[in-house]
Amino acid sequence: MKCLEAGKHVLCEKPIGLNAEQAASLLEETQKYPELKVMEAFMYRHHPQWVKAKEWVDSGAIGRLVTINSTFSYFNADPNNVRNKSDIGGGGLLDIGCYCISLSRFIVGAEPNRVAGIVELDPAMGMDRLASGMMDFGAVTSSFTCSTQMAPHQVVHIYGTEGRIEIEIPFNAPPDKACRIWLHKGGNIEECVLPIADQYTIQGDLFSKAILEDKPVPTPLSDAVGNMRVIDALFASSKTERWVKL
Fold first, then answer.
1. Integer CA distances (angstroms), 90 to 126, 127, 164, 192, 245, in order
2. Residue 146: which CATH number?
3. How far is CA 97 from CA 5, 101, 109, 154, 238, in A?
4. Percent of the chain with pLDDT over 70
């Protein structure tokens, strides 16, 4: 908000805030500065592998979309690390679970109707170190697990009535080597090798182009608010041990 007051465009690292209320207040604030661009930096969406995955889903390459499953984890138990400080947004859901939520909303192209979550807190540091969630989109479901104290791994599977898509390195796509995704269908496997790309550079270029051409940013701030609402609901679900409607 201070950057906006100073007349600056803002590309903000995810998550956009600590909760949906903060994200919504930022969205409201941006209405005062229609000439300035604000975007949450979910860089993965701009990598060619996700463009291809979305294209396969939307074109019906896997039939009707049925469910999405994703895992994202690493091990970091350092109490001095910023990712483990609960008061400033540490914890698995805000750091990496947000990707699993974002990709589900991106691929489905809608917001979930309700969510259910199970969250385990670190007894010493207080932040969530393990979280699993389910999102109900109506005709499509999505489930994920994220952890900050688990063997490092990341993978995404997108299932349809006729096939499935597997994304090998969905989030930390390397900038110096090609990425691979696979379309499994009818007993055959189609491997798609994507060109070497730096997803951060692509994101920066797209944001800059939106500024230079005065066009909407690739990912509107309303999308960031939507993601935070799901995160809030997952925490609430874990506390109440019930599904939470959005």
1. 9, 6, 33, 35, 25
2. 3.30.360.10
3. 31, 6, 18, 11, 14
4. 100
β-strands 163-167, 188-194 pairing: unpaired
107: number of Cβ within 10 Å: 22
- Asked whether residue 79 carries a pLDDT value surpassing 90, the answer given is yes
For 53, counting Cβ atoms within 10 Å of its Cβ (0-12 exposed, 13-18 middle, 19+ buried), the class is: buried
Comparing CA positions, the residue from 172, 70, 78 lying closest to residue 127 is: 78
**Local confidence band at 85 (pLDDT 50, 70, 90 cut-offs):** very high
Query: The tokens of 195 are what?
Result: 């060109």
Of 158, 121, 122, nearest in space to 143 by CA = 158
Amino acid type, 77: A
pLDDT digits 0-9 by tens, 187-226 = 999 999 999 999 999 999 999 999 999 999 999 999 999 9
pLDDT at 86: 86
- pLDDT value for 97: 98
User: Per the confidence metrics, is the pTM higher than 0.90?
Assistant: yes
CB neighbours of 188 closer than 8 A, spacing ≥ 6? none
Domain limits for position 200: 2-245
SS3 (DSSP) at 151: strand
Neighbour-count burial of 136, counting CB atoms closer than 10 A to its CB (0-12 exposed, 13-18 middle, 19+ buried) = middle
**Domain count for the chain:** 1
Q: What is the rounded CA–CA span in Å between residue 139 and residue 100? A: 18
